[in-house]
Amino acid sequence: MHASTRQTRILAYLNGAGEVDVLALAAEFGVSTMTIRRDLDALASAGRAVRTHGGAALAGRVVFDFQFLRRTEDQAAAKVAIAAVAAGLVQDGQSVLLDSGTTTLALARALRDKRRLTVITTSLPIASELQYCATIELVLLGGMLRRESPDLIGPMTETNLETLRADIAFVGADAVGPDGAVYNRSLAVARMLGRMTAAARQVYVVADHTKLGQTALARFGHVTRWNGLITDLAPAALGASLRRAGVNLLAASSVRKTTAKHKE
Predict the structure, then answer these.
(1) Of 38, 79, 150, 229, which sits most exposed with the smallest number of CB within 10 A?
(2) Class of the 3-63 domain?
(3) pLDDT digits (tens, 9 = 90+) for 174-225
């Protein structure tokens, strides 16, 4: 099990019980107590837990919605691979827009080693992830807190986005059609994502293969008008369909040596 997945599950235990024990967690996950201590130290460094004698307790900061935490486990390895490719497209000193998905959360973690970045986001988990990163200036866009997800939307968010011009944006999607159309299940989120993509010089969609070949309620853009789609290995026929439609398809398994296409 990957460390990030294990730490997400530890957070879920913390949210339910308020406190966890090193020995019990080591037995639960079948790893050494040293591994669990490193996990707890990482959660404490991120402000998500407070270390105690023999374990950890829940920090008094934002506790994220269980559904969101569970989504971080879905296709976790693919999200990490996609995040690594996306991070490779970001240069030190750039301004970066990140939406509120679990793939962009993985990307936020991959950006921690960058220098002089300005990261602009609507995501409370991303804000928490980068809050204490000394090399990154963090801008949390204002707005209304969604009840079903720890992120911000609404007229205030959209107005703030209209005043910005970032170097690069990474947005997730609930679905990407075979023609490259990009969808979200929420009309309000789709509207905000449309504003976000308009506020960046380069735009990339980050989505694992389970989102491809699908549709959802609200279309907010089309990958052919942006710089590319970063995904893990897609079925051959679907990948061919996306390329025929004009999508710049960046496969997480092989794109690291390619050169990004720039949007004018």
Answers:
(1) 38
(2) mainly alpha
(3) 999 999 999 999 999 999 999 999 999 999 999 999 999 999 999 999 999 9
Give alpha helix (H) positions in the chain: 3-17, 22-29, 33-45, 66-73, 76-88, 102-110, 124-130, 155-162, 187-198, 236-244
Distance CA 28, CA 159 (A): 47
Give the pLDDT confidence of 37-77 residue by residue, as tens digits. Answer: 999 988 887 777 878 778 887 765 444 454 555 665 667 88
When computed from its CA atoms, the radius of gyration of the chain, rounded to whole angstroms, is 19
Token duo for residue 181: 């159309």
β-sheet bridge partners, residue 120: 97, 139
Pair type for strands 218-222 and 200-206? unpaired
Instruction: Give the pair of three-digit tokens for residue 133.
Output: 């990163």
Structure tokens at 84: 């690594």
Q: Which CATH number fits domain 74-257: 1.10.1520.10, 3.30.565.10, 3.40.50.1360, 3.40.50.10330?
A: 3.40.50.1360
Secondary structure (3-state) at 228: strand
Q: Give SS3 for 75.
A: coil
Question: Is the backbone of residue 193 left (phi > 0), alpha (psi -120 to 50) or beta?
Answer: alpha
Structure token pair of residue 233: 């290995």
Q: 88 versus 237: which is more confidently predicted?
A: 88
Q: pLDDT (tens digit, 9 = 90+) per residue, 104-136?
A: 999 999 999 999 999 999 998 898 889 888 999
User: Are the C-beta atoms of 162 and 195 separated by less than 8 Å?
Assistant: yes
The pTM assigned to this predicted structure is: 0.72
- Tokens representing residue 192 in the block: 């905000």
Q: Which two tokens stand for residue 9?
A: 């599950």
With vertex at residue 97, the alpha carbon angle to CA 93 and CA 98, rounded to the nearest 5 degrees, is 125
CA distance 49 to 57: 6
